[in-house]
Write a structure and sequence with these properties.
This protein is of the alpha+beta class. The chain folds into 3 domains: 109 residues; 69 residues; 130 residues, Histidine kinase-like ATPase, C-terminal domain (Heat Shock Protein 90), CATH 3.30.565. Helices cover 69% and strands 11% of the residues. It contains 10 helices and 5 strands; from the N terminus they run H-H-H-H-H-H-H-E-H-E-E-H-H-E-E. A 5-stranded mixed beta sheet has the order 1-2-3-5-4, with helices on one face. The chain starts with a helix and ends with a strand.
């Protein structure tokens, strides 16, 4: 009777340990070693059940009941040790998961801080260019325009005209650089208008058709979301123009009640994402989207163009 009770307790503990081990298979990312441990636990539980079924017969055949009782106690001890081991293994896995989660959260916070600091520096540099260097160039242009050309030789007039044109080109370049650093349309009117203004400008200076569709109207979102997604779209378009040899680009911007999505595609040469992920700045794009707790899915193959889907939750 004692042997039967001990075997029932051992079987119960082994089943508990097996269930705990099975629940950790996913947490250990289907590690082969842990799967073998679980199989061993289940095998031990099966042997314990078989031992219970045959306990009466074993006791009757073995002329030393003390030996049978000792082996039963040993089975129970092993069961207790295994159950305790699985319990602490579960605590260890959960602790490691918490540490990894905290590490990922810290990395996201650091990246978010870096991106915010970078954007602040862009804005500051843009204002310094616009408010500092811009007026100086405009003043130089005005000074040249009031020079009396009647007393100048034809060569001097040509030099003056060329200098004026150079200053005008410098002013235009300065405005473009300032706008690229901190797009005023994005800041004033939001993501939809900012991307629209960007693709219109790109389409006029490149022989590529850009089909842009926006379903968000004039909706505004968090500044971090608007700035990062704007930069991501600029990076994707730049990659397509530099590397893909595409003739068409498609961009679709939409929003539901809590999710902002961007569908991007081009008809370029395509590539193997795993081979060129870092070389084309795609890892940087993924990191930026990750700082928003969003997702970045990429599909491409040689000769099949490229497709990307970006999803970001917003409050």
């Amino acid at each position: 009777m004692v042997i039967k009770v001990l075997l029932i307790i051992a079987i119960t503990l082994l089943l508990i340990a097996s269930i705990g081990g099975i629940s950790l298979i996913k947490e250990t990312k289907f590690n082969v070693v842990w799967i073998m441990v679980v199989i061993a636990l289940l095998s031990l539980a099966g042997l314990a059940v078989l031992r219970y079924i045959l306990s009466v017969r074993i006791v009757s055949e073995v002329h030393s009941p003390g030996l049978a009782l000792a082996s039963t106690w040993l089975t129970l001890a092993v069961s207790v040790c295994l159950c305790i081991g699985v319990y602490y293994a579960r605590k260890l896995v959960m602790y490691i998961d918490r540490i990894n989660f905290q590490k990922q959260l810290t990395n996201k916070r650091i990246l978010s801080t870096v991106l915010r600091t970078e954007e602040k520096e862009r804005i500051r540099f843009s204002k310094e260019l616009h408010d500092g260097l811009g007026p100086l160039l405009s003043s130089a242009k005005m000074s040249l325009s009031v020079i009396d050309k009647s007393n100048l030789s034809e060569s001097d007039v040509e030099i003056l005209r060329g200098t004026t044109q150079v200053i005008e080109e410098a002013v235009r370049s300065l405005r473009e650089i300032s706008n690229n650093l901190s797009p005023h349309v994005l800041n004033e009117f939001g993501l939809g208008r900012g991307i629209s203004n960007f693709v219109t400008k790109i389409a006029t200076i490149n022989k590529v058709g850009i089909d842009y569709k926006s379903g968000i109207g004039s909706r505004r979102f968090d500044t971090d979301i608007e700035v990062i997604l704007y930069r991501v779209v600029c990076e994707l378009v730049g990659n397509s123009l530099r590397h893909s040899g595409c003739t068409r680009i498609g961009i679709a911007l939409n929003a539901t009640s809590d999710t902002l999505t961007i569908e991007y595609n081009d008809n370029g040469h395509g590539f193997r994402p795993e081979a060129t992920y870092s070389g084309m700045g795609l890892s940087n794009i993924s990191s930026r989207i990750g700082s928003l707790n969003g997702s970045f899915e990429l599909e491409s193959a040689p000769g099949q163009g490229m497709k990307a889907l970006i999803s970001v939750k917003f409050k």
